[in-house]
């Protein structure tokens, strides 16, 4: 049974990675997950300098999902390169680094800093709804997305994967802008912007008022967008949004994703990534599928 | 820190006060590892609620392989737990967090409201001269169990029992003294205790609460502001679930 | 305890109505719900002529919600006026008619046909993601929305309520376009476009491939958009999207809705509208709220 | 048509074949109203699944106030039902749909696969000369119960019992005759029976299936194409949940 997939010229031993921000840099999940058994570990968004993130409360549960407004707290690229990358390498993991920034030069600085690091892909988060500057501003405007993609691509040593926001009228327009800017692959979806009100205290549950919605509740939107994007441009896709089981992963791949990220599911079940991988294998066995690549985008 | 994720069985459950439930869970591997001040993540069986509920460990019985939790019905998740019966099962993960650092110095063990249960196992295990101070609204759940362990002082909001007011009122009224404060309870109480400890040159270990997602330090959902830069993210935030929930009060920036 | 609300100059005995398309024209729910006890019955989208709708399967369950691609099957305005309006009036219900069309003239024809009918409000569905022509085309383009609003408003005898699609980058831009076009109120949200794949049959679950997602899964998006719109324009709002309980309704009203519609919840519980109403009353009693209007948009 | 929405209690549940379960529900008001060919909407307790599952009524016992359903585990919802035990409760609504119109004419009662259960109560209640024809893959659940009522012919896909092939093969092999066909089963079988009935000048009442949301005619989710314009929406669609699930085969447009 072949589980290996190739995305943007890089080989991954299987299609399962972690959704940025839900898995730290892997260390926290090591008691539950063999990091080397994953296709890759996608790390929490990292910026050129440490970020404090938003005030608390930062997370809230919603029906079949959750909201977060962590605000990209991160240790900055220096500590990340010194501590997290070596640790992941030592554990035998392939690495996708998620990059965030407030301005184009922030992103470029991080990308340049990673040039000689043993990193497979750079996932560029231009779709975080929880920070005031940068982030989503690039992710909701095709021209801005094109420009920043081009700027990052010019400096990146590793293939880049622009991560798209679902909070747009037409996701295919954004996909094409990233493609035109030189992105090597696309990652979708980031979170849907949502809000929860505590009616007893008459307050927003999140200090940030709004947060990004994730989890199985949003899966139908994610599957739809992956399908649309896979038909609108030629780039390979890392699909995510609500994957809880192997069957969810298969669905995302049938819609057109070459790899899948498991996010919120980790909070529900710390072994979720492994369960997803096992579920994929079980599906392949049941239907006598020799090569996982057969199912990618298999329906039109 | 080792932690376990497993299906646990409810061994016993009873209501001990209005809206307050006392549940014993069979979770042998968790019971073997747990320390006072740690907590467990309890998952709902109803799949519309995905995030685990953090609940402090109130009792540890490694011999029987059980952990005890005492919790208040606050919303849908704790409501679901409260409807479970002996024999029912649920997913749990734990023990989580750091727990209290037990010192061999004269101690004041303080619990306020639903922050009282986590102090029981500490009161039992702490090998030092100790007084327990409990702050209630009115009704005094678990009080008798504390009294089996050591001297207990009470504060109630309406003054119907013990001192009228807060735990600090009780400490002052009864002249309770010690070198180390161990405390869990609402934020205003902890803030007041931090000030009280500083004023009196005491150490204070306080157990904090915040909304959580992962429960194990990965999501950065549950931070509190810290005076020093955190080893994990290199900013003035520290993760309550992983580096806490118990902190030296001097390290915490209260908002 | 006052539950009466006024929206676009019309009084409703309470803020609870039904979400269009989930309650037929009321008759099917009469065994469970006293139609006169509702603030209003909002009827299934009606066009100038009968529409066949889409092929089946038309509905699919999703995590905490569902997809539908009914495609606005409806009997046309003639039969609607002859049968459904008189029936609703006989039952003592206030009526909000949801109007659909493929072109501006379709909408105008329906609106004119309703001029002398005992209808309180006209809810204009320019946001149905499940029909090829019309519908969403108007709902995702502010200029088109402005134009059609103006055209309908010019002919409408009753106040009009433009119903907005959540499948847009900036809901406030759409709200302002409808306001500028003369809409008397706004209704939001319609469904989020989603997709579900049957991985065992390797087929789309819905014949239409995509469908509109509704139910509690989408509530955080709905609350966020209601909140944003209530701060972006002056129009009163009928809020909907995932309301299952009285507490959900209160949340939507705190976010800024004057009335709330109960949709998918009816499928889960045919008495949902009544339970929502009872839940609102219970909340008001618990917090000693004399007048429901106090809570509308009560948080900033 | 009167229908009830209520909490029903599982009185009995047992597995009767691979993946096939037989459940008896205490639902007195529903049992008092139900007719053969109607169905009930069964709601999941797990709240991530909101839509009711339509399941045909296999047995009606108004004296005991129970309804019986026999169902196959097809996905998450039926899996949840299959794990329930006597004493557990769930929400149900019903009886729904029109049911069969029982005629006093020589009848062939036909069930295919999981379309077999709804024919049992009809076989019991139909007061006419009748033969039952059942199409199975291999294993023949419920066969004995039908045999208690009248003559039963079988078809199996592999020919391990009865005729090899479909119910039509069995009808032909055994020369089964009648004036009215009552049938439930997979679409290809119903389509073939519709053609067979037309060819032989018979009436055919067929019970259809479609994905449903409301179950009561409000959402227009579950239509089938009809030859005549539907009274409800004035187009060539008719609602399976409300105007069906049983239709005169002549009225149905097969795709
Ligand atoms: C470290 C720690 C230990 C705790 N120990 C106890 C205990 O021993 N006994 C006890 O009764 N309670 C305890 N709590 C509070 C308890 O976690 C909440 O009351 C519980 O999560 C509420 O869940 P719910 O589904 O009933 O409420 P809902 O309001 O429906 O919950 C919705 C979401 O918000 C979260 N949430 C709501 N209130 C809180 C809160 N106060 N703290 C953290 N998350 C919250 C829930 O976990 C859930 O994700 C503790 C909290 C923490 C952080
Ligand atoms: C009128 C009617 C009578 C039925 N009677 C029986 C019966 O007596 N015994 C029996 O085993 N099955 C019967 N079915 C089929 C049964 O409804 C489905 O097998 C069941 O809904 C599957 O639910 P699930 O959650 O296990 O599957 P999932 O695939 O997880 O369900 C997902 C969604 O799709 C719907 N769905 C899936 N398959 C079907 C289907 N075949 N028909 C309609 N909806 C479906 C579910 O209701 C649910 O909303 C009947 C269907 C209809 C329409
Ligand atoms: C707590 C949390 C933190 C996140 N942080 C990031 C981040 O740093 N960078 C990023 O690109 N996406 C981030 N995301 C979005 C996820 O990577 C993912 O796109 C989204 O959650 C959808 O997947 P899911 O439904 O499987 O969680 C975060 C999501 C959550 C829930
Ligand atoms: C089966 C179904 C049919 C619908 N038909 C219509 C319609 O005809 N016109 C319309 O404006 N909205 C229609 N909607 C959208 C709902 O009115 C509502 O906006 C949406 O479902 C969100 O609310 P809910 O989550 O409470 O269902 C339909 C929704 C469903 C589920
Ligand atoms: S809850 Fe995730 S870091 Fe604490
Ligand atoms: S299921 Fe709603 S009309 Fe049949």
From TrEMBL, chains A, C:
<dbReference type="InterPro" id="IPR001295">
    <property type="entry name" value="Dihydroorotate_DH_CS"/>
</dbReference>
<dbReference type="InterPro" id="IPR033888">
    <property type="entry name" value="DHOD_1B"/>
</dbReference>
<feature type="binding site">
    <location>
        <begin position="241"/>
        <end position="242"/>
    </location>
    <ligand>
        <name>FMN</name>
    </ligand>
</feature>
<comment type="similarity">
    <text>Belongs to the dihydroorotate dehydrogenase family. Type 1 subfamily.</text>
</comment>
<dbReference type="GO" id="GO:0004589">
    <property type="term" value="F:dihydroorotate dehydrogenase (NAD+) activity"/>
</dbReference>
<keyword id="KW-0665">Pyrimidine biosynthesis</keyword>
<keyword id="KW-0560">Oxidoreductase</keyword>
<dbReference type="InterPro" id="IPR013785">
    <property type="entry name" value="Aldolase_TIM"/>
</dbReference>
<dbReference type="InterPro" id="IPR024920">
    <property type="entry name" value="Dihydroorotate_DH_1"/>
</dbReference>
<keyword id="KW-0520">NAD</keyword>
<feature type="binding site">
    <location>
        <begin position="44"/>
        <end position="45"/>
    </location>
    <ligand>
        <name>FMN</name>
    </ligand>
</feature>
<dbReference type="GO" id="GO:0044205">
    <property type="term" value="P:'de novo' UMP biosynthetic process"/>
</dbReference>
<dbReference type="GO" id="GO:0005737">
    <property type="term" value="C:cytoplasm"/>
</dbReference>
<feature type="binding site">
    <location>
        <begin position="68"/>
        <end position="72"/>
    </location>
    <ligand>
        <name>substrate</name>
    </ligand>
</feature>
<feature type="binding site">
    <location>
        <position position="125"/>
    </location>
    <ligand>
        <name>FMN</name>
    </ligand>
</feature>
<dbReference type="Pfam" id="PF01180">
    <property type="entry name" value="DHO_dh"/>
</dbReference>
<dbReference type="InterPro" id="IPR050074">
    <property type="entry name" value="DHO_dehydrogenase"/>
</dbReference>
<feature type="binding site">
    <location>
        <begin position="190"/>
        <end position="191"/>
    </location>
    <ligand>
        <name>substrate</name>
    </ligand>
</feature>
<dbReference type="InterPro" id="IPR012135">
    <property type="entry name" value="Dihydroorotate_DH_1_2"/>
</dbReference>
<feature type="active site" description="Nucleophile">
    <location>
        <position position="128"/>
    </location>
</feature>
<feature type="binding site">
    <location>
        <position position="215"/>
    </location>
    <ligand>
        <name>FMN</name>
    </ligand>
</feature>
<feature type="binding site">
    <location>
        <begin position="263"/>
        <end position="264"/>
    </location>
    <ligand>
        <name>FMN</name>
    </ligand>
</feature>
TrEMBL record, chains B, D:
<dbReference type="GO" id="GO:0051537">
    <property type="term" value="F:2 iron, 2 sulfur cluster binding"/>
</dbReference>
<dbReference type="InterPro" id="IPR019480">
    <property type="entry name" value="Dihydroorotate_DH_Fe-S-bd"/>
</dbReference>
<keyword id="KW-0408">Iron</keyword>
<keyword id="KW-0813">Transport</keyword>
<feature type="binding site">
    <location>
        <position position="214"/>
    </location>
    <ligand>
        <name>[2Fe-2S] cluster</name>
    </ligand>
</feature>
<dbReference type="Pfam" id="PF00970">
    <property type="entry name" value="FAD_binding_6"/>
</dbReference>
<dbReference type="Pfam" id="PF10418">
    <property type="entry name" value="DHODB_Fe-S_bind"/>
</dbReference>
<keyword id="KW-0249">Electron transport</keyword>
<dbReference type="InterPro" id="IPR037117">
    <property type="entry name" value="Dihydroorotate_DH_ele_sf"/>
</dbReference>
<feature type="binding site">
    <location>
        <position position="222"/>
    </location>
    <ligand>
        <name>[2Fe-2S] cluster</name>
    </ligand>
</feature>
<keyword id="KW-0665">Pyrimidine biosynthesis</keyword>
<dbReference type="GO" id="GO:0016491">
    <property type="term" value="F:oxidoreductase activity"/>
</dbReference>
<dbReference type="InterPro" id="IPR039261">
    <property type="entry name" value="FNR_nucleotide-bd"/>
</dbReference>
<keyword id="KW-0411">Iron-sulfur</keyword>
<comment type="similarity">
    <text>Belongs to the PyrK family.</text>
</comment>
<keyword id="KW-0274">FAD</keyword>
<feature type="binding site">
    <location>
        <begin position="70"/>
        <end position="72"/>
    </location>
    <ligand>
        <name>FAD</name>
    </ligand>
</feature>
<dbReference type="InterPro" id="IPR050353">
    <property type="entry name" value="PyrK_electron_transfer"/>
</dbReference>
<comment type="function">
    <text>Responsible for channeling the electrons from the oxidation of dihydroorotate from the FMN redox center in the PyrD type B subunit to the ultimate electron acceptor NAD(+).</text>
</comment>
<dbReference type="GO" id="GO:0050660">
    <property type="term" value="F:flavin adenine dinucleotide binding"/>
</dbReference>
<dbReference type="InterPro" id="IPR017938">
    <property type="entry name" value="Riboflavin_synthase-like_b-brl"/>
</dbReference>
<dbReference type="GO" id="GO:0009055">
    <property type="term" value="F:electron transfer activity"/>
</dbReference>
